[in-house]
Specification:
Aspartate Aminotransferase, domain 1, four-stranded mixed sheet, Aspartate Aminotransferase, domain 2, binds pyridoxal-5'-phosphate, 2 domains, alpha/beta, globular
Length: 415
């Protein structure tokens, strides 16, 4: 068996107590409904539990493990980063890996500057601050942030206010002010984006948690034109859909537009926590020394690993295989929708990011698929979500679809 890093696991010197799989026995705060298995290792596209059982992983740690498990290049980058020097020096000093990572992101995007942080929600909250900072330079009342129906931007205070999930929001009211949700149509947005009060519109080019909704490239172009005309910053949240998942390095490339701010995180550092905010020259020019900070952001260890990962995720051969495998997977899932007596009601997606609206509660299908050795996600109560590693093979996709077909063909009442 291998560890999460693909290293051989060491036999523990003393017998270990079993990890509690019932939340009531765990010292961890039970904010998650965890599956009752304990992951002990991983290899390629498979996760391995502590009883040695293997699972085909179409969750990738929620879009994080884009290179799968035990990737030799990633492991080498991690070891090299450990050997290179201190893991952390703080942003009181310069360090080479962070500088090189930021320069790489600038060289491969619209951005002129980068702020490195530690998670997706932190990236979005920073982007809101930078958009407000820029807005203030245009007018004293230009500070509102607008998000779209179906959006998910994180679970911290401002990102929660921009997240359209009533169940996540209700227990924490009042939410952060100056942030609202608007319908996903251009007529509404023409009214909502009043230039004098709105400073930013935040959009996921593919809404992930909201049901895997791929925004039409034409709609994204209209949003770009409208925000430019109203002097509203367009923030693209590519935390889930960016860095290769849709078959291009950045999802915005598909629409031929450029945002003013872009947020990325999940797959960026090969499983280490990291996020980034990419800023246009105009927004960056409005931000001053002391306006924002974060203790850990862009430390040398995580940045060196991220520098390796982003270059792997930009590899044209990997991106081509995401597009090819994605087209195959989309067609295979559409065939499921056509053949399963209404078990699948709709299929949406792009690249290696797919959602299936299902008749049964999605969580019941996730449980049965796991019992058959396939790990899936949900995106809402009746939507399954598939986010395999970007390195998944066609044979593994075929195996996953076969298991899914089998699970869907035996609805709950027939089992
Ligand atoms: C589109 C999007 N934005 C933001 C976030 C929040 O990221 P994090 O969980 O790293 O804070 C997520 C997480 O799922 C996401 O999918």
């Amino acid at each position: 068996m291998t560890s999460g890093l693909g290293l051989p696991t060491l036999t523990p010197p003393v017998a270990q107590a079993p990890v509690p799989t019932d939340e009531r026995d765990s010292a961890l705060l039970p904010t998650y409904a965890r599956a009752p298995i304990t992951i002990a290792g991983g290899e390629g596209t498979e996760l391995i539990d502590d009883e040695g059982r293997r699972y085909l992983d179409f969750t990738s740690g929620i879009a994080v493990n884009a290179l799968g498990y035990g990737d030799p290049g990633l492991l080498a980058a991690m070891h090299a980063a450990v050997d290179a020097g201190p893991a952390h020096v703080s942003n009181l000093f310069h360090s080479r890996p962070g500088e090189e990572l930021a320069q790489w992101l600038v060289d491969h995007s619209f951005a002129s500057r980068v702020f490195l942080c530690n998670s997706g929600a932190e990236a979005n909250e920073g982007a809101f601050k930078f958009a407000r900072r820029w807005g203030r330079s245009l007018g004293p009342a230009k500070n509102e942030i607008v998000a779209l129906r179906g959006a998910f931007h994180g679970r911290l205070f401002a990102s929660l206010a921009a997240t359209d999930r009533p169940g996540y929001r209700a227990p924490f009211r009042p939410l952060a002010g100056g942030i609202s949700i608007a319908e996903r149509d251009i007529a509404t947005l023409e009214t909502v984006l009043r230039a004098d009060t709105v400073t930013a519109l935040i959009v996921e080019p593919v809404q992930g948690e909201g049901g895997v909704r791929v925004l039409d490239p034409g709609f994204l172009r209209e949003l770009r034109a409208l925000t430019a005309e109203r002097r509203v910053a367009l923030i693209l949240d590519e935390i889930q859909c960016g860095l290769g998942r849709t078959g291009t390095l950045f999802a915005y490339e598909r629409a031929g537009i450029e945002p003013d701010l872009l947020t990325i995180a999940k797959p960026m550092a090969g499983g280490l926590p990291m996020g980034a905010i990419l800023l246009s020259a105009e927004i960056a020019a409005a931000v001053e020394t002391g306006d924002h900070g974060t203790t850990f952001g862009g430390g040398p260890f995580v940045a060196a690993v991220a520098r390796y990962v982003v270059q792997r995720l930009a590899d044209p051969a990997l991106l081509a295989s995401v597009r090819d495998n994605g087209a195959w997977l989309g067609a295979a899932l559409a065939a499921l929708a056509g053949s399963d007596e209404g078990a699948v009601r709709a299929v949406r997606g792009i690249g290696l990011m797919w959602g299936l609206d299902v008749r049964e509660p999605a969580s019941a299908i996730v449980t049965r698929a796991r019992e058959q050795g396939l790990l899936l996600l949900t995106a809402g109560t009746h939507t399954l979500r598939l986010l395999p590693p970007l390195t998944v093979t066609r044979a593994e996709l075929e195996r996953g679809v076969t298991i899914l077909r089998d699970v869907l063909s035996k609805p709950l009442e027939k089992q």
